[in-house]
Amino acid sequence: MLSYRHSFHAGNFADVLKHTVSTSILNYMLKKDKPFCYLDTHSGCGAYSLDSNEALKTNEFLNGIGPLWGRTDLPDPVADYLEQVTEFNAQSELNFYPGSPSIALQMLRDQDRMFLFELHPNEFTNMRENFSGNRQIKMANSDGLKGLIANMPPKERRGFVLIDPSYEIKTEYQQVVDTLIKAHKRFATGTYALWYPVVDRQTISTMERELVQSGIKNIQLFELGLSKDSMEKGMTSTGMIVINPPWTLKADMEASLPFLANTLGMRGEGFYRIETLVEE
Q1: Taking the mean position of all CA atoms in its chain, how far away is CA 65?
Q2: What is the H or E stretch that residue 69 is in?
Q3: Tens of pLDDT along 191-242?
Q4: 275 in helix, strand or coil?
Q5: Residues 29 and 160: beta-carbon distance below 8 Å
Q6: Among 7-11, 48-52, 191-195, 223-227, whose mean pLDDT is lowest?
Q7: In total, how many domains does the chain have?
Q8: Which residue in 32, 93, 261, 269 has a CA-CA distance of 20 to 30 Å to 225?
Q9: Phi then psi for 215, rounded to 5 degrees?
Q10: Is 164 a catalytic residue?
Q11: Is 245 a domain residue?
Q12: Helix (H) / strand (E) containing 217
């Protein structure tokens, strides 16, 4: 258990979707002077080398950040995301990829706070080394879903929560739904973004249905796929379910996802999905 290491998958198409959505949300939250709290339930180590043995073993970044690097014809939200990756690379070459905590840290102001949780001991050790000495960050080698509930509502009364499990255990799909419902009861005005892989479409449909039936309002869904759903093993597409999204997010994704599906899709089978699951 706890065998998942994101270094094998850093910069893949799932990261492109997750971080384009996250960057869009963070940009919106930064428009107000009031501080906010960023909480990441599954932080990983926060920084990845694309020259590492793990990254080169899978080469997943070649179907993700790779085709976007250096392009100047990107939709604005994708360009904003690429700016964060570019900032993380000191040189003009794409050598490193920022995890979600690094992107958030680059964007947050001095008055904002971060909570980072990571259960994997080695990943946590690396994360602590990467972010040590920064007083606006609190890190814990513990269950991030429990940490989320314990820290809601944040004192700022403004917050963005990213839930990004590995889904190594099948029960995590149900666990994240239950946790989202509990967190929303404690902090109903927060923005929550739940990432998921599409390995089994029926499982994702169950998640959607339970969230729709939960009574939570204002839920949007965004998916990006390299190819159509398949009965074969492996992730064919990926998605983000966002509760209390910024009013600008849907338009940002309408500008971004057709481009990403066309650019990253395999054999012309790339697709995207944009849905309002529950109205505001």
Answers
A1: 14
A2: none
A3: 999 999 999 899 999 999 999 999 999 999 999 999 887 766 678 899 999 9
A4: strand
A5: yes
A6: 7-11
A7: 1
A8: 93
A9: 95, -5
A10: yes
A11: yes
A12: none
**How many angstroms separate the CA atoms of 21 and 73, rounded?**
19
Per the CB < 8 A criterion, the answer to whether 278 and 219 are in contact is: yes
Q: In which element (H, E) is residue 89 found?
A: none
The 10s digit of each residue's pLDDT in 186-197 is 999 999 999 999
With beta carbons less than 8 A apart as the criterion, state whether 162 and 116 touch. no
Q: What are phi and psi of 49, to 5 degrees?
A: -95, 125
Q: Is residue 135 part of a domain?
A: yes
- On whether residue 267 sits in a domain, the answer given is yes
Check pLDDT > 60 for residue 1. Answer: no
Q: Which domain holds residue 140?
A: 6-278
Q: What are the structure tokens assigned to 244, written together?
A: 């209390």
pTM of the model: 0.95
Residue 153, preceding bond cis, omega within 30 degrees?
yes
Distance (Å) of CA 268 to CA 29, 64, 157: 35, 15, 44
* Sign of the dihedral defined by the CA atoms of residues 180, 196, 13, 260, in that order: negative
Residue 124 maps to which CATH number? 3.40.50.150
Residues 6+ apart with CB under 8 A from 250: 220, 274, 276
User: Is residue 1 domain-resident?
Assistant: no
Of 51, 164, 178, 252, which one is the catalytic site residue? 164
What is residue 135's DSSP assignment?
T
Phi and psi, residue 86, nearest 5° = -65, -40
Report the relative pairing of strands 96-98 and 47-49 from DSSP bridges. Answer: antiparallel
| pLDDT of 5 | 62
Which residues, at least 6 apart from 166, have a Cβ–Cβ distance to it below 8 Å? Answer: 4, 42, 172
Tokens representing 67? 């085709």
Work out the widest C-alpha separation in the chain, in whole angstroms: 49
